[in-house]
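Quick one: structure tokens for this chain, please?
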Amino acid sequence: MERLFAQDGYIPGINMHVTARKRPPGQFLIYHTRLLTLASAGDVVVNLRGALDHLAYQLTKVHRPRITIKEERDISFPICKDLAGYEKARKTVIKLVGPRAIKLIDALKPYKGGNEALFRLNELNNINKHKLLPTIERIVLCHDVWIGKRFMYKPGRPQFSGIFARPKVKDYILRGGKETIPELRPGRREALLPTLHYLVEVVDRIVHEFLPVLE
């Protein structure tokens, strides 16, 4: 994945007239990246969320080998916007996955305010699937060979703060040769690559925790 981001970064961009005192009019740095970079980041997010839904399906098949078509449509790994939403979803989930699995799910606290990593993953998945590709600045100059030209991508509020971690910042660490972060904090935008590395580790750890239930 790192090769995909090798040529990304800030370059001199468009000229803008600014009335703010702290920033005089003139040319500003615009983030420059390939569209494939943003699309690939979105794929990582969707695949991680999908892995959790696959886990929920396998947990259901172990606990209840025979289920109705309607029940099968309801199978998903619960990640909710708050505790109240999770308690409501839990009533359906426990019937499908059973008491052993629901105990592990409860411990994860898969809702906003309980597990920032899972909540962030779910939000990124919904944005990528139903709205826009994830991005790292309010205005991004996109390009790719297959497009043949550059275009301005203006998503509004970015989900990440740049692609790479800021150098010499203790909030970021190296784990397995990859730059990552020790945790995701509410309301803080992190760099894209460290965040994706962290989310991969989180989902991998969750899947391994549930393996005894699948035996």
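The beta strands are 9-16, 26-34, 140-143, 151-153, 173-175, 178-180.
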